[in-house]
Design goal:
The protein is of the alpha/beta class. The chain has one domain: Rossmann fold, CATH 3.40.50.150. Helices cover 39% and strands 21% of the residues. The chain is built from seven helices and seven strands, in the order H-H-E-H-E-H-E-E-H-E-H-H-E-E. Strands 3-2-1-4-5-7-6 form a seven-stranded mixed beta sheet, with helices on both faces. Helix 1 packs parallel to helix 4.
């Protein structure tokens, strides 16, 4: 499938990084596994589930085993190719991958029982619109799950000096530096009721809260 968004700088970046990303290790495996387990508390065999910003599909493949149908979206065609190959190799047939932007998804309203998006909403162009889209495709009282970096919670030195240098080295554009409370407000404004905010990181203070919300 050809990429629909090839002129977007984020697409070029992630297409270039796809193979390296696929080989990279999870930096906080304990926290990652806790988030996997917690997410699966909300999945049942009859559900349709969507992951926004699925990357190369590692998380998607694990969750697909717990539901009826799983769809993963990403803006990078190279990420999608790797995810599709993984699904074939794993012989998981109830999963599909589609190129789509978080703020403009090609799905009917109220199509999914669960929508999740991890490590993605600080990178989208319009986070408010992306959250409204997540709400739109969810059934009423459907569950929204996200583990989102709230980089405004970082200390000043990291936020003002170290992070910008790292981003410049990787040629990556960071769009949002919101704090946790800001993000929770955006969720509420998009039509969600926040049910829980958890810390799954190994450190005492995590900048990536695990948030569960319900579409109201």
């Amino acid at each position: 499938m050809s990429n629909k968004f090839t002129t977007h700088p984020s697409v070029r970046f992630w297409n270039k990084q796809a193979r390296k990303y696929a080989k990279s290790k999870v930096s906080d495996m304990k926290g990652y596994e806790r988030s996997i387990d917690r997410t699966q508390d909300f999945l049942t065999p009859e559900m349709r589930v969507l992951e926004v910003g699925c990357g190369t599909g590692t998380t998607a493949l694990r969750h697909a085993l717990k539901c009826k149908k799983f769809i993963g979206t990403d803006i990078a065609s190279e990420m999608i190719k790797i995810a599709e190959k993984k699904a074939v190799e794993a012989k998981i047939g109830n999963i599909g991958f589609i190129e789509a932007k978080a703020d403009k998804m090609p799905f009917d309203s109220k199509s999914f029982d669960v929508v999740m998006g991890h490590n993605i909403y600080h990178l989208v162009d319009d986070v408010d619109l992306a959250l409204v889209e997540a709400r739109r495709v969810l059934k009423k009282e459907g569950v929204f799950i996200t583990k989102t970096p709230c980089l405004g919670e970082m200390n000043v030195l990291m936020r003002k000096l170290v992070l910008p240098i790292m981003l410049r080295l990787y040629g990556m554009k960071l769009v949002h530096m919101f704090r946790k409370d800001d993000f929770l407000t955006q969720l509420k404004n998009a039509g969600f009721k926040v049910e829980s905010v958890e810390d799954h990181g190994v450190k005492d203070k995590s900048i990536r809260p695990f948030i569960v919300a319900v579409a109201v």
